[in-house]
Amino acid sequence: MQHQSQAVHSFNISISSKSPPYNSSSTLPPPQSHPSPTISNSSSSSSESPGLNPYKNQSGYYLPISTTDKQEKQQQHQHKYNNNSNSFTNTVDTLNSLAATNSFAIECPKHKQEVDLRDYIKKNSNSDIYSTFLNLDYYNRYFNQNQKQQTQPSILSPSSISSPTSPSLDNNNNNSFCLCDLKTMLLSRSDFIQDIDTDSNLLQEYHRLKMLQEQQGPKHTEILLRKEDNVGGRKALKEKFVEIFEAFFNDEDPSSGDPKFWEQLFLLKVNIPFLERCIILSSEDRLLVLKSKLNNIFTQSCFWLKNSDPTRLSHIIEILSIMLKSIFRKKFNNFGFDVINILCGIDKADTVFPEFIKDSTQLLKTSDVNIKIGIINLFNIIATATDYMNQNTLLQFFMTVDISRTLLELLGDKELPKSSKMNIMTLLCYLSNYQKYETQNPYIKSLSNLDDIEKIKQLLDVITEGIKDHNKLFEEQFRQPNLGMAAKVGGYFSSWIYTPPVVHNCSFFETGSCLLILYELFYQNETFVKQLVGGGWSREKSCPEILSQFFTFCSYLASDTPKESKALYSKISLLILMLISESRELQDYFHDPKSTSYIFIYSKKSLFPDPKELEKHPLSFHVVDILSQFIKCNLKGKQSMDTHQMSVDCIQRVLSYKKKTQSRLPHKWADLWSSLFALLQVLPTIQDKSFLNQSIQVGVATVNIFNLFINYGDSFLPTPNDYDDLFYEIIRSGNVVDNFYIFIQQQPQNDPTGALLNSLLNIKSIVQHFSGKLQEWSSANPEVALTAPQVSKIIKDNYDTLRLKLQENLDQYNSYVENKEIALFRHYVKELVCDLKKQIVVTPNAPPSPPMK
Fold this sequence. Notes:
Shape: elongated
Distance between the termini: 63 Å
Strand content: under 5%
Main location: membrane
Subcellular location: Membrane
InterPro entries: ARMD3-like (IPR039868), ARMH3_C (IPR013636)
Domain Armadillo-like helical: 611-840
Structural class: mainly alpha
GO cellular component, one term: cytosol
Helix content: 40-55%
């Protein structure tokens, strides 16, 4: 029999899912069919056989103590062992019963003195770790026996247990006899359970003991030991990296006295699961106790970033990444202070972290692509340390050492894969939003002052690719439900010849970061706006691709916003549209009839892009279409009033420009009027009182848009017939106007001056005036039903008797100020951080994805 040389706490405790099921029909050989080992009484004596282990005396087998006194004291706080399973004979009970009838002595090698087995069990049988070791070893041996019984004799059978005088024992192995050997010998005298792998209570107890062992023994060694080999169940040796870091986490310093220690350590392959487990299974207080050791690891890792060896650099980046990622998962009382204290110490932070950022930035400029990818991921781990970015004190060092220029240059690196460029975009987004309203942020300044046209183009290329990928995902989601039977059959047969490309899901942090950087460019970068208006990025005098993809994205988004992430997309997209609607340079470009182009706007009437691209319109035409859809497609859901308010405000800005320039926009205005009346119809039915004030404001803003059409529509509507159609729609929606008027009257506290009711006077007068005329005509012609042309004729004939009040300042609005949206941006960035944090995975030298075209 091969005896284990490992400590008791290093037993294999995993059940392989691939092991063959136990055959309950098979039975172990009966104990009486083999000679049982002899346990000599303490009073008996016999001579020591040659070749026996020196730790074995005449009284029997030795029982080494597996833990030190210090470890036993630390384990006293663990829960007392409670055996809830009645389906098996407890090993401790077996030993107790045997000790009661066999008075024999054993010698403890640690204390070099004989002890009575009965006394030893009496003192230790209540110990959690003692019971755990016994039971776990029993289970492991039994399951190992099930896996091996087809090829070799059972290690649990009495025949496989050497007798006390067996010459096969290795006399050089001083620790070959341990507690498990004695226990196995004793267990051979009892019957074994035949349903051990089917008894649910027993398996539940196994998992409980497994978890208890993780809490008691050294926590970090279990996953390092490979599965038992086929000869004797021996364990493989630990790798060097594991031994070193296990010593660190046992509060030892293996680097002391060795000047080449760190140089050699960083050449070792990093065991990522082990290092992560060491930190995760250590409590916050334990990490603070290990502060000096962790300081040493972190500071030496940062120092060796100056080394030029790519193997060392790769391993250092892996160590730093997994250390930071695991420590950031902990919940400290003072997160920023404690984390810095654990990593490098408060007194050294102002030196270590700036040097670390500078050295890492230098690697981004000179190293190979794998090192660059690792540094980018490491920076993103630091940026996502806390859910709320302003609480991440580590980012303050990035404000001191500005790396924005390096990040922007990396966007033009053709060797970097697309995913890494997206991560750079995400990092720029995070750093530019760190305390942007409290202090001067160098990254916001870099984005606003960026005047290098080539770098802006590289930035736009990444944004365009990100939005285009999401459009492909939208197209795939909307295409299948809207395909006809012929298209589905044709697609099925064509799939035999042509396999369409697989559309992968897009992460929220990728698309969200692209939208936020695009917002910053529209909001603050004058060079970007001038190049956009001047056609610097247009192809063949058509619309720039970034605008085409963004408008298509907005149209898909307007038709599908049930999730919170898409609602956030909608708000940022509407803010971009508002910036476009306010900027005079962009307004001139968007309303210019010469800037016509085809852009696919998804709607129920236009499900798929037109391959011929026949219908070309000014960009403002597409803006009005998108805003109309945002209103019409989100009336029944739980869409926030903010989205409707932004949509109505954008429409007001478009109409105000048309009124000032008196330029006509050929558009199907009836669709917009229908959407606005649908919104007015929904507002009085909202039950949530928290939205009451905002719903009234949205309703009044909608009414003012109709006032703009009524007072100044003849100057920008395409034809006089469109003006007649406006009155036709108002009369047709008379009940909606009356209900909203009553709704306003019922809220006097929200309209103390009566300004809200005054805004409804004109539209109310139109409904009353023409409703009376139509009633008179119906009374005079009772046998004839009114038709649409007859209604239009009555409207034209009665303009002269209509009296309206001229309303001023309808084209005035408050310019957009970002400070009013602070809560939105902080919530938006928090969601981006949380999404990226879930998806960051540290892998050793993962192969990069294909580079971006």
